From TrEMBL:
Organism in which the protein naturally occurs: Actinomyces oris
Entry similarity comment: Belongs to the GHMP kinase family. GalK subfamily.
Lineage: Bacteria, Bacillati, Actinomycetota, Actinomycetes, Actinomycetales
GO cellular component, one term: cytosol
GO MF entries: ATP binding; galactokinase activity; metal ion binding
EC number of the protein: 2.7.1.6
PROSITE patterns referenced in this protein's UniProt entry, alphabetically: GALACTOKINASE, GHMP_KINASES_ATP
Assigned keywords, A-Z: ATP-binding, Carbohydrate metabolism, Galactose metabolism, Kinase, Magnesium, Metal-binding, Nucleotide-binding, Transferase
Residue ranges of domain GHMP kinase N-terminal in the record: 112-207
Location of the Galactokinase N-terminal domain: 24-72
Pfam families: GalKase_gal_bdg, GHMP_kinases_C, GHMP_kinases_N
UniProt GO BP: galactose metabolic process
Protein name: Galactokinase
Length: 423
């Protein structure tokens, strides 16, 4: 093993994020913003590809956030800038923008911010004001950590306040009902403005999580339960491994998995695959075996139904009041390991970089490890002893060197606060 230290991607402190976004706003727009709002990325502890199937997911909000300095305008113009685009400000009009594939299509990252205003207007909030906004984000791009949802949700809480919609409350005293409505608009932004057919787990995590907790999200009805997840108190940590493998949700692979699930549900005569109870799975798979694409439908269905069951079992473990150690910790690790194997074999959405990261983390002493996010690249997570974080990260980095992969990056996943106003 080499002595090169693994690289950890730092999270900007609230002060650093606020100051950076404000400075960029002043530089480009030569004015003061009305405020700075933020929204976190997320990592999913378990429950992958269950959201659009009406199942359960268990995300946490990350301390890595998108920061948005924003000022309300009195017209319908939107102007957006980031550190990468400071020489060319994106300018658009709320009266002319539209979904992907239409003449009013908004390109690239601007669709995630301007698109929220477009979506909110379709939800009944008519004639929203335009705005100038400067974005500074430390959520790793392409890492499967919901960098796009962080943009959407930072815009949602900012627009909510400057347009006086009264939905979000504050990060300290959130209005969960209002935030659930903002989630709907953010998901519509992702689906229609950006063209990515995702479910609502990412946006729910960014807007509805609580510090020190995981969020049990029922993706059928949007109900949530806050599950205690203070790993530091147990001497544990959740290590995020950003594989640096290309990650995209609009290249067709994600959509193909979703379409297969919808076809399986139709054949089985259910609205969503979450309607299939774990004890009824063998019979459901037998019914799918006669379809032309039976092998694909059987594997996709098996993953979804068993993943929902694994999520339910992990939530029960975390809620039983006992310390997360001994056999309880071992069982949590087994559930994470089984999740990854299901995603690798049945959902076929891992990649060599993800598999090597998971295998190396386990070999280095992780209690459990799995890919997280949509897959096909992105990130993996490992449940490790707090004093072993850097040793496990070094082992993963060494495995990447042996395989000839690009070096990974790492994050400390601390359950953080939801979207809100900084200043």
């Amino acid at each position: 093993m080499t002595n090169d230290a693994p690289v950890f991607a730092p999270a900007l402190s609230p002060k650093e994020g606020s100051e950076a976004a404000t400075a960029l706003f002043r530089e480009v727009f030569e004015a003061e913003p009305d405020g700075v709002w933020y929204a976190p990325g997320r990592v999913n502890v378990i429950g992958e590809h269950t959201d659009y199937n009406g199942g359960l997911a268990l995300p946490i909000a990350l301390p890595h956030r998108a920061h948005l300095a924003l000022r309300r305008r009195e017209d319908r113009v939107v102007r957006l800038v980031s550190p990468q685009t400071r020489e060319k400000v994106d300018v658009m009009d709320l009266d002319t923008i539209g979904p992907k594939g239409t003449p009013g299509e908004v390109e690239h990252w601007a669709s995630y911010i301007a698109g929220v205003a477009w979506s909110l207007e379709r939800d009944g909030f008519e004639n929203l004001p335009g705005f100038d906004a400067a974005l500074v984000s430390c959520v790793p791009l392409g890492g499967g950590l919901s960098s796009s949802a962080a943009l959407e949700c930072s815009a949602a809480v900012a627009i909510d306040e400057v347009a006086h919609l009264g939905l979000a409350g504050t990060a300290q005293e959130p209005d969960d009902t209002g935030r659930a409505r903002l989630v709907t608009s953010c998901v519509r932004t992702e689906n229609e403005m950006a063209g990515a057919p995702t479910g609502g787990m990412d946006q729910s995590a960014s807007l509805r999580c609580r510090e020190g907790h995981a969020l049990e999200l029922d993706c059928r009805d949007g109900s949530v339960t806050h599950v205690p997840f203070d790993l530091a108190a147990e001497g544990l940590a959740l290590l995020v491994i950003d594989t640096k493998a290309k990650h995209s949700l609009d290249d067709g692979q994600y959509g193909a998995r979703r379409a297969a699930c919808e076809r399986a549900a139709e054949i089985l005569g259910v609205e969503l695959l979450a309607d299939i109870a774990i004890e009824d799975l063998p019979g459901a798979l037998e019914r799918l075996s006669g379809a032309d694409d039976a092998d694909e439908l059987v594997k996709r269905t098996r993953h979804v139904v068993t993943e929902i069951d694994r999520t339910r079992r992990l939530v029960s473990l975390l809620q039983d009041g006992r310390p997360l150690r001994g056999e309880k910790l071992a069982e949590a690790g087994r559930l994470m390991d089984a999740s990854h194997e299901s995603l690798r074999v049945d959902y076929e959405c891992t990649c060599p970089e993800l598999d090597v990261a998971v295998e190396a983390a386990r070999a280095a002493g992780a209690h459990g490890a799995r890919m997280t996010g949509g897959g096909f690249g992105g990130s993996a997570i490992a449940l490790v002893d707090a004093d072993a974080v850097h040793a496990v990260a070094a082992a993963v980095a060494d495995a990447y060197r042996r395989e000839g992969f690009n070096p990974p990056a790492f994050l400390d996943a601390v359950p953080a606060a939801p979207a809100g106003r900084l200043v």
